[in-house]
Amino acid sequence: MTATAGGPGSWSENILEYFLRNNHITTEDGAEIIWYHAANHKAQVNEALKSPAHMIEADVLLPSDGSEYSQPIMAHPPETNSDNTLQEWLTEVIKSNKGIKLDFESLAAVEPSMMLLENVKRHLQRPVWINADILPGPNGNSRVVDAKPFIDTVTSFFPDVTFSLGWTTGWHPEKVNEGYSWTMVKEMEYICKDLNLPVTFPVRAALVRQSCSQLLWLLKKSNRDSTKLWHLLSFFLENWLFQKLQKSKRALKMFFHTGSQV
Predict the structure, then answer these.
(1) Which residues of 11-38 are buried (b: 16+ CB within 10 A; e: fewer)?
(2) Bridge-partner residues for 58, per DSSP?
(3) What is the pTM for the complete model shown?
């Protein structure tokens, strides 16, 4: 039986509602969600599945051999090979009740990955986030995943998925680093404004303080009337910023990736 979009068991279900409903968290607070980052290799997947993490994040690309029949693998550049394919990864993860977030490093990996996900969809009655960096951001490179074909390909398979749409970024510790500009957030809003699906915007923690006005504007523009839509700002946070944001009301809908795996 197919879950209603945004409803219990759907890929677009609010992750706070999902984990509350399953008694894995006690309050509707994004700070309670534990993430396992870069669960790409088999050893990392096994560790993630045994961990207290609620959400498992991993990276998907096509292997460097360029074979026509190459399967999507789990790796993050500069790595271009892995001991784990997406198919093998999914086989293990569907045995758990953890939510998943797949980060796509190239457009070429998206369609074959959606085909694999389609094969296991009935076993994945939980939140599924599909992520890509679709715009260049502060100190970021131009090697982005083309937004329109990425979104179109994903939605052609799954109209009820949660998108995570971000910017490529960089950080120079000995220089003044500019934050997310108005142009950057307005470009993102333009891409998302007609997207009738939940969207989360991952941003780099060290660039948040100098970008507050821009990011708050993006969040406000993202608020819509439909109860099926929820828009979150997901921060990759150092501990000091985590403590500050926990005190704000907006932190209830923010999800925190700290420096550790879980």
Answers:
(1) bbbbbbebbbeeebbeeeebbbbbbbbb
(2) 102
(3) 0.85
